[in-house]
Design goal:
It is a single chain. The chain has about 750 residues and is an alpha/beta fold. It has 22 helices and 31 strands. It has a seven-stranded parallel sheet with strand order 11-12-10-13-14-9-15, sandwiched between helices. A six-stranded parallel sheet has the order 16-26-25-17-24-23, with helices on both faces. The protein starts with a strand and ends in a 7-residue tail after the last strand. It binds adenosine-5'-diphosphate and zinc ion. Adenosine-5'-diphosphate (ADP) binds next to helix 9.
Length: about 750
């Protein structure tokens, strides 16, 4: 048989080697292989029968590094599916599955020497020791009082080595070697928690999940979608379901959008399972190579039975997996924006089917993809409609900024009177506030400040993007163009203007209006410094900050009991980007953000500032009405053929040479058009909304298809047949989430 081996190192080299008789090489094994005059290590990607006839003798695999393959058969199957579905190389997928830290040998476990005193040493012998060898006696005394009479030799100090040797020879102590776990969270203290008595709806959801958990599920159980309003106690359901899986001797995988932004969720899992000691592994992005290596092997061996991590943790090598939980399943951070461009939620659903195991997707604002799967019966819907702690949902007020603008005499209104007064009240009472600013749109849209009208494409219903160079409005889905109106097409007011301001501007305004308040800003700029986010969140938690200003990155599962006011400054900005998910994201943002208010004993208030108070995503979010929102949004998606009713992919070409990027994409466009399979809609070649980034010009084509595979296959086959100019990079993004 032949092994195809990915050589370690950054070069992505892949070579074939013959497998010698008697060497049990399977896919996922780590092997040593010859390369030129040297021996190196690599990972086996596949094992296939030898070719019929070979012209030259193939070199042989030298030896196996680990007896067991690093990749489980399920993960290998998952890897093949990802490569196929997203059109990426299998090598790239294997790289994601096996982090470099794991593929590199020098990260292997560290050991240390420890000294342990024997229990109850003979008192006479000890007395003798005290007289004759005072130093040895002192060390023995220290050890006898240490926890479990054990200390690391290093901690006793270099100079103790001869004394320890004598003590060992005299039989007072033993010296041994143990593996050191590089514990990334060794210095954290966790207060254990017990299970809460579930309310009726929680109980019902829990029972359903539990009934699917069995030591050997006969067929893959269908995925559960747990739709629970913010604060409805979804996490408690996850915790108890996890406990049930553990009770069956199974392991549990918990995916969260981002570890640093969901500290509460992580802490609650640790607190609940603290009695299991080392059995919870948290896969942070900031783990050192050594820590990553150790955590990975603890998981692989089944020592760590609960794994919490972000996107790439979907590949955690848990044996005997019983339950996968995907918290905040709608979050777009589950989509990887570099190759392989997989969506961790979708991969998790697939892995659950392959294992087979139970999977629960949870959210207060599910993605329409998952919602559609519930409607079609593919997923099983579980609902929690009330807050678990009997607090009412916060009151959401919508402020019409068109009126504010008139009051503020033509200036861009940032803070409405209502929001300013509310902030002052909170400050006076010593309560805290959070202000959200929608991420500054990469694309600039045009909106009337008098009537709120925004310019959208008549064919696609997405916002038109302003292009300064040729003074045009362009649709980034279909290519429709129109001139820039001088007056609002609706109300004829000349006050139609480009949208957008940043977090710094907000901070400036606030400092003027509330000079005595303590502010902190959380955005990508302010977060460059290491631990900046953690420090700010800690300060906020301990009431050292009055007002937190942030982009939507802080809308995820934060929990601050003293926050009673949440303001959304520019709810529109996210609404008018050239992305069919703009409305969905705005609905999610408002709902999630509103869920941050009133988490404690105090009642919460949410103020949403907008130029389009009538927009459905704002109105349904105000009423906490997911069903109503989903219904009208689905109608739009169906009508314009967007996901979940079609797959949408983006093909991007970028280069420092503008013309070459455009020309390359036009060539690809022509070839894609030839024998285009049925059911695929090919868009035009257009400059990307973010036309220039990192000194590269970018052009893109949007493709839509009823079925995923024909689309990926068609694009891949064209790409294989086309030789690209050296300085042009082409990227295919299947099920794209980013249209910039
Ligand atoms: P979600 O994950 O849906 O946002 P949480 O799990 O954070 O909701 O629950 C919100 C609050 O309600 C938490 O403080 C939690 O401890 C509390 N809670 C959850 N379930 C119960 C219950 N059955 N009884 C009492 N309190 C509960
Ligand atoms: Zn259009």
């Amino acid at each position: 048989m032949i092994a195809r081996v990915l050589i370690d190192g950054p070069s992505e080299l892949v070579f074939d080697y013959a497998i010698p008789e008697g060497l049990a090489v399977v896919a996922g094994c780590r092997v040593r292989v010859p390369i030129r005059q040297k021996t190196t290590s690599g990972t086996v990607l596949s094992v296939t029968p030898p070719p019929e006839q070979s012209e030259f003798a193939m070199r042989e695999v030298k030896s196996l590094i680990d007896p067991e393959p690093l990749i489980t058969p399920v993960l290998l199957k998952t890897a093949r599916w990802i490569a196929d579905y997203y059109g990426s190389s299998i090598e790239g997928v294997i790289r994601s599955i096996l982090p470099e830290a794991v593929r590199t040998e020098d990260n292997s476990a560290k050991t240390r020497r420890i000294a342990t005193a024997v229990a109850d040493p003979d008192p006479e012998a000890v007395a003798k020791l005290e007289k004759r060898a005072a130093k040895q006696h002192a060390i023995l005394t220290i050890l006898l009082h240490a926890p479990e009479r054990t200390m690391a030799v290093a901690d006793l100090g270099e100079s103790t080595a001869p004394s320890l040797k004598s003590l060992a020879e005299k039989g007072f102590i033993t010296i041994s070697t143990e593996e050191v776990r590089r514990d990334p969270e060794a210095d954290e203290t966790i207060v254990p928690s017990g299970p809460l008595a579930l309310n009726d709806q929680q109980q019902e959801a829990f029972e359903a999940i539990k009934s699917s958990l069995s030591p050997t599920p006969p067929i893959p159980p269908s995925p559960y979608l747990l739709l629970g309003v913010t604060g409805s106690g979804k996490t408690e359901v996850y915790l108890q379901a996890a406990q049930s899986a553990l009770d069956l001797g199974k392991t549990v995988l918990v995916l969260v959008p981002e570890i640093a932004l969901t500290p509460q969720t992580v802490r609650r899992f640790k607190a609940r399972f603290s009695q299991l000691n080392d059995q919870v592994a948290v896969l942070h992005s900031h783990l050192s190579q050594g820590e990553r290596f150790d955590e990975w092997h603890r998981i692989r061996k089944g020592t760590a039975r609960i794994v919490i991590g972000a996107r790439s943790a979907v590949f955690a090598p848990l044996p005997n997996l019983g339950l996968i939980i995907v918290d905040e399943e709608h979050e777009s951070s589950y989509k990887q924006e570099s190759p392989p461009r997989y969506h961790a939620r979708d991969v998790a659903v697939l892995r659950a089917a392959f294992e087979p195991c139970v999977i629960v997707l949870g959210s207060a604002t599910p993605s329409l993809e998952s919602w559609q799967n519930c409607l079609s019966g593919k997923y099983h819907l579980l609902r929690l409609d009330k807050r678990a702690d009997a607090h009412s949902m916060p009151l959401v007020r919508v402020i019409d900024m068109r009126l504010e603008k008139q009051k503020q005499k033509g200036q861009v209104a940032i803070l409405s009177d209502r929001l300013r007064t509310a902030l002052e009240q909170r400050l006076a009472k010593g309560e805290q506030s959070i202000l959200f600013l929608n991420r500054r749109g990469f694309a600039r849209s045009l909106q009337c400040h008098s009537c709120g009208h925004a310019c959208t494409c008549p064919h696609c219903a997405v916002a038109l993007t302003y292009h300064r160079t040729d003074e045009r409005l362009v649709c980034h889905v279909c290519g429709h163009q129109s001139i820039v109106p001088k007056k609002c097409p609706e109300c004829k007011d000349p006050g139609i203007a480009l949208q957008g301001y940043g977090t710094q501007k907000v901070e400036e305004v606030l400092q003027k209006v509330l000079p005595e308040a303590r502010f902190a800003r959380i955005d990508a700029d302010a977060m460059r410094r290491k631990n900046a986010l953690r420090d700010i969140l800690r300060k906020f938690k301990s009431n050292k900050i009055d007002v937190l200003i942030g982009t939507q990155m802080i809308a995820k599962g934060l929990h601050f009991p003293n926050v009673t006011l949440v303001g959304i400054l520019n709810a529109d900005l996210g609404l008018h980007v050239p992305d069919f998910r703009a409305g969905e994201r705005t609905f999610q943002l408002i709902t999630q953000v509103a869920g941050r208010a009133g988490r404690g004993e105090l009642e919460g208030e949410v103020i949403v500032q907008t130029f389009t108070p009538h927009s459905p995503s704002i109105q349904f979010a105000r009423k906490h009405d997911f069903d109503g929102y989903a219904e009208q949004e689905m109608e739009m998606r169906r009508q314009f053929r967007f996901p979940p009713f079609a797959h949408c992919a983006v093909l991007t070409a970028r280069s420092t040479h503008e013309r070459r990027a455009e020309f390359t994409l036009q060539t690809l466009h022509l070839r894609l058009k030839e024998d285009l399979p049925d059911g695929i809609t090919l868009g035009e070649v257009l400059p990307s909304p973010l036309i220039r980034s990192h000194d590269q010009f970018r052009f893109q084509i949007t493709l839509r298809s009823n079925k995923a595979r024909p689309l990926t296959n068609h694009v891949q086959s064209v790409l294989r047949r086309t030789t690209l100019p050296e300085d042009v990079t082409v990227v295919f993004d299947m099920d794209a989430y980013n249209f910039s």
